[in-house]
From TrEMBL, chain A:
This is Peptide/nickel transport system ATP-binding protein. It comes from Tropicimonas sediminicola. Keywords: ATP-binding, Cell inner membrane, Cell membrane, Membrane, Nucleotide-binding, Translocase, Transport. The keyword Cell membrane applies. PANTHER family: ATPASE AAA-TYPE CORE DOMAIN-CONTAINING PROTEIN, OLIGOPEPTIDE TRANSPORT ATP-BINDING PROTEIN APPD. It is a peripheral membrane protein.
From TrEMBL, chain B:
This is Peptide/nickel transport system permease protein. GO terms for biological process: transmembrane transport. The chain crosses the membrane at residues 6-24, 45-68, 112-138, 150-178, 231-252, 272-295. The lineage of its organism: Bacteria, Pseudomonadati, Pseudomonadota, Alphaproteobacteria, Rhodobacterales. The keyword Membrane applies.
Amino acid sequence: MGTQSKDNPVLLRIRDLRIEGSSEDQWTEIVRGVNLTLRKGEVLGLIGESGAGKSTIGLACMGFVRDGCRFSDGSIEFDGIDLRKASRAEARALRGKRIAYVAQSAAASFNPAHRLIDQYSEGPVFHGVMSRGEAESDAVELYRRMQLPNPNEIGFRYPHQVSGGQLQRAMTAMAMSCRPDLIIFDEPTTALDVTTQIEVLSAIRDIIRQFGTAAIYISHDLAVVAQMADRIKVLLRGEEVEEADTYAMLAQPREDYTKSLWAVRSHARPEQPPVTDGTPIVSVRNVTAGYGQTIILQDVGFDIHPRRTVAVVGESGSGKSTAARVITGLLPPSDGEVFFDGGLLPPDYRKRSRDQLRQIQMIYQMADTALNPKLRIRDLIGRPAQMYLGLKGRALDDRVRALLSLIELEPEEYLDRLPSELSGGQKQRIGIARALAAEPKFIICDEVTSALDQIVAEGILQLLERLQSEFDLGYMFITHDLSTVRAIADEVVVMKEGRVVEQGPKTEMFQPPHDPYTELLLSSVAEMDPDWLTNLLAQRAAT
Amino acid sequence: MQFLITTFWIVFFVAAALCLGWLFRTMIIRLAPTNFAASMRRAPLTASFGMLVILLYIFVALFAPVLAPFGEREIVGGEFLPWSSEHLLGTDNLGRDMLTRMIYGARNTVGIALATTALAFVVGALLGLLAATVGGWLDQVLGRTVDVLMAIPALIFSLLLLTIFGTSVTTLILVIALIDSTRVFRLARSVAIGIVVMDYIEAAKLRGEGLWYLITREILPNAMAPLVAEFGLRFCFVFLAISALSFLGLGIQPPTADWGSMVRENATLITFGDITPLLPAGAIALLTVAVNFVVDWKLHEASGLKE
């Protein structure tokens, strides 16, 4: 970030851009007259919730629209070339060479059948910028600048042989291969956990500064965008809400919508007195579990009391989800036991009684795969009620309607829909309703908000909190997002490499002294301060 | 000149087929209930032509005794009579009316093929879904058994089994259904393998659902699209297999009318430049093409592509 870019010549100018998408044989406008100006070497952040048109605008900067969409009006001028009028060949000469794109999921965007370096070389060789040999040595140079381990060798690996964070950096290096004037980053760190996110963010920021590349950085996470962008543009339903310099925007947002984006982060659950007596609803004691010879969980133990939320935190691979699988009985532990309301639970779910199964319900991370796409909402929610409570006909119908009202969806409108006819947040609500239909005492929430954008996630968290006090539920809340922990948890369990490194009430956890790992996790959470990343890196370098 | 005339006829038939398809589609859209009409409106002309042909065959098969001018096994005149107003397609090698035998042939060949395919699907799909859901040793046993059965060439295997168990319609259906169910098993299993790892299956298992519910309510609806497509193709293969076996003398036994054996019985006529023996073959070809038109459309729809 710098002010020097203010006087640079304009690189990209978008005027009154309108894009339409077709659904059910009708064209609806998804981008409604957006203006955008980007100077050479400048970084613009695009932020908004899903459906705001961020990605569509990002792709439009390359003169590209997705299948089923079309440009209806406006102009996209890149360095004097009108991309809307450019022929296919002209556009192809620009893409990859002067405008590059970094996609959200590097794992899905790399071709799994080719080595990283082969994919790196493809662009420069195709555009005639470098020979194959030059491209390979250039790749090593850029891998080094992206701070990838073993830059000399990593290119000769296949995509599945490197981690997600490394893959995302390799992809940024690849986008840099032709030294483009503009790179579009579409949520490059959304799928990564906080500690990896920092590495990727700092590597991306360094490299675009070194080469003076202009960038458009798309994200729904305001704190992340603030680290990267000189200016921020807020979008809502295909329209611009406001645009300002990063510092100005963070200090003084003008519009109500922008303020609501800020407010999301400030939600925090009031402190509750710690539970000292009474039987915990679920108690995990000295559990060791794994698959075959590989041990994933080692000597893990924690208690969850009724009406309390225990957040289980850790990066991916730390064993959070495995702990949930042990509680549900999908993975019988090799050692240790799980108690429910004081009684020992059979380790295998197939040995548990129907009532034991009913008491422990689960809400999944990806509502898309957690709801059978061929069943209607009525059946999805109705089935547990029918099975466990023996409801039929009229009573079942009433119950399903009551559940839908409980999750704030209009029964008349949604009863007969399929999951594909719902938005992401609504699907997650159906997942919650399905868990509630069993009238459980304990619910496991596995990263329930991580696939949702902030405002929708906030709604889900509030709903969960309300339901907890209404039905005296105990929650086990698996997450890697510490701001979610702050918002909803009473107690925190921090996990690393299959072990519990620290546990206790939330207030204690957020105050020093910490376990070194907890400290790392806590400091990695992006803050609403444009200098946060710079300061953090300086601080870590000093110690 | 000859070439031009051939081209003309080909163009004529294709155009006529598309016109018929269009007329049929328009009619359905007018008459059918709204949601079916809506999906018909998106159907290509080839698919509606295919549906028309299939309906026609079903109609002929159902009302064979009413439509046929003579009895199925009735000898009505001299052998190999040419086409005339009395015998529209002439007579066969024993003096039976060719048109009558064609009409009854639709009933026998299509009926048996349908029964066989249905049986192959019930057995193959259920076992395939079961193998994928249960996994473990059951999957291994079923999978290896199917591998063994598939290792033997289908036609040779069916000839062998029919020679051992004799040639009745029941054994014919059972033998071909057994052989074809192995192919269905493989497809159903591989489709279901992708479905059983989904979270909603895990959720259903944790809910305590039984195997039958899991297979029929959670897995089958999601595996339907490829299975339906396979049903259409499999139907054609079974159809051809029965005709091939009949042609070889081990399929549907005379005097029952069947398109495969009709080709063989009257094959001598081909040497005299008469196309009559090829008509049953043409009937087989037309139905096969028609079924595939419809299947293509269904596949296209299931894959979620828009043109």
